[in-house]
Specification:
Bound molecules: guanosine-5'-diphosphate-alpha-D-mannose, magnesium ion
Radius of gyration: 21 Å
Shape: elongated
Structural class: alpha/beta
CATH class of the largest domain: Alpha Beta
Number of domains: 2
Largest sheet: 8 strands, mixed
Helix content: 10-25%
Strand order of the largest sheet: 12-13-16-19-22-25-28-29
Strand content: 25-35%
Oligomer: single chain
CATH architecture of the largest domain: Alpha-Beta Complex
CATH superfamily of the largest domain: Spore Coat Polysaccharide Biosynthesis Protein SpsA, Chain A
Number of strands: 29
Number of helices: 6
CATH topology of the largest domain: Spore Coat Polysaccharide Biosynthesis Protein SpsA, Chain A
Length: 346
């Protein structure tokens, strides 16, 4: 089975983390989300992967190469200009098989794909869309269906009072290559705003498939934090690296926690991390590989990517820090989102 992963967006709602880092490569439990996704796809029989990339493609290519380490074949289609969600699919047409899956690469989910794929095949193809239900559908693509699940209307990001239901596009599709003939080539086209409504109008069978289980779009800082809380609470069943040394405390290899430090679960600590005396870590804190947390530093509900240093007595509350940052002695930061490019407070 083949999957095309849409991973080219700018990730504006996760800036500055995504200024120089592709959103799907944001760490989740100390591993890029895209890696979790590829591992899950492989396990479910998807071994032919096409990545549609644009923003910082080299970060993705350097990490995955041809995909051998994961037992999959990865090919990249790099857009010169952003082509939108349908334009990116059209752009990859020559690499696509007759029937293939498409994933928004920023969706955190643990779905079983088999029933979705079987449903698509049983109906004889066309367009199938995974659906999930949310409280406030206005940030998503919202559908109206008939009793058979056929989608009668697709509205992208409607005003709350105009949403036809609470069932939304979960960002996973199965398409027959034949439908790509309708997508104009070489220009920006949105699958949500142009193609889904267009296919429905034209009579192409567009069906919704209800899914169960964890689902979250991690594309805003608020949701990115929530995904981490859910991971540490084990509501999101993804592998957590490291050994669970006590309930809710995971520590990676070659890390040293000073006996005089206080760890308040849940906490995930990566590989080769050092934590100094009287440091207080947690709850809901994730520390990436090769970080140094000096004595007396306090980290609550914060996420640090790799190679960060938190100097003596610094305090981080509800912060997210990208790779390779240093937080100075006695600095106190609340709700900061920071990368080497800059900082925002959200
Ligand atoms: N290659 C490429 N080129 N990828 C793109 C482009 C592009 O021009 N634009 C967006 N993407 C990728 C993003 O990187 C992301 O993985 C995915 O397509 C979806 O884009 P978002 O920008 O995250 O869209 P959204 O979250 O506002 O809305 C989409 O996802 C919702 C589910 O979370 C829509 O598909 C909604 O209908 C849907 O409900
Ligand atoms: Mg998104």
């Amino acid at each position: 089975m083949q999957a095309l992963l849409l991973a080219g967006g700018l990730g504006t709602r996760l800036r500055p983390l995504t200024e120089d880092w592709p959103k799907p490569m944001a760490l989740l439990g100390n591993r890029p989300w895209l890696e979790h996704l590829i591992v899950m796809l492989k396990r479910q029989g998807v071994d032919d992967i096409v990545l549609a990339v644009k923003h910082c493609p080299e970060k993705i290519q350097q990490h995955f190469g041809y995909g051998d380490r994961w037992g999959v074949t990865i090919r990249y289609v790099v857009e010169r200009t952003l082509l939108g969600t349908a334009g990116a699919i059209k752009n990859a047409e020559s690499l696509l098989r007759d029937r293939f899956l498409v994933f928004n690469a920023d969706i955190i989910q643990t779905f079983h794909l088999r029933p979705f794929i079987e449903g698509h095949v049983r109906r004889g193809g066309g367009v199938s869309i995974c659906l999930t239900e949310v409280e406030d559908p206005s940030h998503y693509g919202v559908v109206e269906q008939d009793a058979d699940g056929r989608i009668l209307r697709f509205v992208e990001k409607p005003r709350p009072e105009e949403a036809p239901s609470r069932k939304i596009n979960a960002g996973i599709y199965m398409l027959d290559k034949a439908v790509l003939a309708d997508i104009p080539a070489g220009k920006e086209v949105s699958i949500e705003r142009e193609m889904f409504p267009g296919w429905i109008r034209k009579g192409v069978p567009v069906y919704g498939h209800d899914t169960e289980g964890y689902w979250m779009d991690m594309g805003t800082t608020k949701r990115y934090r929530q995904v981490h809380r859910d991971l540490l609470d084990r509501k999101l069943d993804l592998p957590v690296s490291g050994t669970e040394v006590e309930r809710g405390v995971w520590i990676g290899e070659n890390s040293e926690v000073h006996p005089g430090a206080l760890i308040v679960p849940p906490v995930l600590i990566g590989n080769r991390v050092t934590i100094g005396e009287k440091a207080v870590i947690g709850p809901y804190t994730v520390i990436g590989d090769d970080c140094r947390i000096k004595s007396g530093a306090r980290l609550m509900e914060s996420i640090l990517w790799n190679r960060c240093t938190v100097e003596t007595n610094a305090v981080l509350n509800n912060c997210i820090f990208g790779h390779g940052l240093t937080i100075g002695t006695r600095h106190v930061m609340h709700e900061a989102v920071m990368s080497r490019i800059g900082v925002s407070y959200a």
